[in-house]
Amino acid sequence: MHHRTHDRDDAPKAPKVPHVSEAAKAPKGTKAAKAPRAPQAPDAGPAERRGDGVSRRRLLGTAGAAGAAGLVLGGAGGAAVHAAAAPDPGTALTTVGSTGVPFHGRHQAGILQPTQARGHLVAFDLAAGVGRKEAAALLRRWSEVAALLMAGRPAGGGDTGVALDAGPSSLTVTFGFGSSFFDRTGLGSRRPAELEPLPAFSSDRLDARRSNGDLWVQIGADDALVAFHALRAVQKEAGATARVRWQMNGFNRAPGATARPMTTRNLMGQIDGTGNPKPSEPDFDARIFVPADGGGPASWMAGGSYAVVRRIRMLLDDWEKLSLAKQEQVIGRRKADGAPLTGGTEATEMDLESIGPDGEPVIPADAHARISAPEQNGGAAMLRRPFSYHDGIGPDGEPDAGLLFVAWQADPLRGFVPVQRKLDRGDALSSFIRHEASGLFAVPGGPAKGEYVGQRLLES
């Protein structure tokens, strides 16, 4: 759950939208300085044309902060599998709502952006009798609505008004296809080899009702109402074409909640996200995204990625009974600052050869950080971008809480699978977690202007 922090120096800064009421606050008789106006969409609505209010669209920021994120639960410093870090510099609380993320682009939104404060993961199954034509119409509707909402605009004439007063709030809506989608739509010959079912792991306790699905949607935003609004819009647009198979709700630390940008903590209290692969690294795209020159039946996946989704319950009552020293031995890092037990800071490389006065490795042989380290897994890499979750207290009195693990990679057989196999064989953390749901989804590249997500598959 705990990997190397993603260095945000290469992330573009989100523009700050000035507070629109500063002029109104100027003392009587004085002339207030005019603040620069925020970018305005060309097809401005009535409120913007009249100038009599601040609409969602006037709050629209022009760029999303880019960065990498992710996490293999508890992957303390390992296998290039790590959680999203906050943007650098920290976002002032007054600008949280104004940040927008483009819908169109080379990659779908929701992969490279920092994790948001609120998230929803939802899978759909196509209704009986639905085929390729109906599925294409659904993806077209979803794409149109997502583009509107991510721009801070209402979701068409039937908008519920839930997020009427908010800006885009870094909203991202990401769409993917499960393995079963291809047979249901007559596209079995276009199914990627990378979408083969994940192997079984001995630690799995999977609930089939909360796993897999024909279609998958990831929603994230820095405002809970904006995220819910998008979830409701996606569900409504599904209509009779698809029904919800499962849905999971998550959260992360809100932007501006810490005095300086910091790697987030998971529900075990561990700094979780040390070491995601960085977009500035020369092999980043090759590890995370499908190449454009791949060719073959899955050429429609160019610029896309494969998302492994796992619901990982944390056995918090058992974990919290451990002493601080024992927790740090299980992870292989200090709880206070995320530094390896061999010393330094959170960003310091682990010294896996270091031996303590007792003749034992300073970082134990079964520590999560050691087992998931890249050098222990042939350089296996994932871009982890998770959410924490809490679904109440169970009948046994224990919290149903943990991690909604989402990991991105160009090929799960070279990313998630080898790391999880290694963890499955001897990770000290495995006694305190339980994998309860799983899914693997092909997430195509981002749509160009005028395209909808998946168009290159559904109309080829």
UniProtKB/TrEMBL annotation:
<dbReference type="GO" id="GO:0020037">
    <property type="term" value="F:heme binding"/>
</dbReference>
<keyword id="KW-0408">Iron</keyword>
<feature type="region of interest" description="Disordered">
    <location>
        <begin position="1"/>
        <end position="53"/>
    </location>
</feature>
<feature type="domain" description="Dyp-type peroxidase C-terminal">
    <location>
        <begin position="263"/>
        <end position="446"/>
    </location>
</feature>
<keyword id="KW-0479">Metal-binding</keyword>
<feature type="compositionally biased region" description="Basic and acidic residues">
    <location>
        <begin position="1"/>
        <end position="13"/>
    </location>
</feature>
<dbReference type="InterPro" id="IPR048327">
    <property type="entry name" value="Dyp_perox_N"/>
</dbReference>
<protein>
    <recommendedName>
        <fullName>Deferrochelatase</fullName>
        <ecNumber>1.11.1.-</ecNumber>
    </recommendedName>
</protein>
<keyword id="KW-0732">Signal</keyword>
<keyword id="KW-0456">Lyase</keyword>
<dbReference type="InterPro" id="IPR006314">
    <property type="entry name" value="Dyp_peroxidase"/>
</dbReference>
<dbReference type="GO" id="GO:0046872">
    <property type="term" value="F:metal ion binding"/>
</dbReference>
<dbReference type="GO" id="GO:0030313">
    <property type="term" value="C:cell envelope"/>
</dbReference>
<comment type="function">
    <text>Involved in the recovery of exogenous heme iron. Extracts iron from heme while preserving the protoporphyrin ring intact.</text>
</comment>
<dbReference type="Pfam" id="PF20628">
    <property type="entry name" value="Dyp_perox_C"/>
</dbReference>
<dbReference type="GO" id="GO:0033212">
    <property type="term" value="P:iron import into cell"/>
</dbReference>
<dbReference type="GO" id="GO:0004325">
    <property type="term" value="F:ferrochelatase activity"/>
</dbReference>
<feature type="domain" description="Dyp-type peroxidase N-terminal">
    <location>
        <begin position="108"/>
        <end position="252"/>
    </location>
</feature>
<dbReference type="InterPro" id="IPR011008">
    <property type="entry name" value="Dimeric_a/b-barrel"/>
</dbReference>
<dbReference type="InterPro" id="IPR048328">
    <property type="entry name" value="Dyp_perox_C"/>
</dbReference>
<dbReference type="Pfam" id="PF04261">
    <property type="entry name" value="Dyp_perox_N"/>
</dbReference>
<dbReference type="InterPro" id="IPR006313">
    <property type="entry name" value="EfeB/EfeN"/>
</dbReference>
<keyword id="KW-0560">Oxidoreductase</keyword>
<dbReference type="GO" id="GO:0005829">
    <property type="term" value="C:cytosol"/>
</dbReference>
<feature type="compositionally biased region" description="Low complexity">
    <location>
        <begin position="23"/>
        <end position="44"/>
    </location>
</feature>
<keyword id="KW-0575">Peroxidase</keyword>
<dbReference type="GO" id="GO:0004601">
    <property type="term" value="F:peroxidase activity"/>
</dbReference>
<comment type="similarity">
    <text>Belongs to the DyP-type peroxidase family.</text>
</comment>
<keyword id="KW-0349">Heme</keyword>
<dbReference type="InterPro" id="IPR006311">
    <property type="entry name" value="TAT_signal"/>
</dbReference>
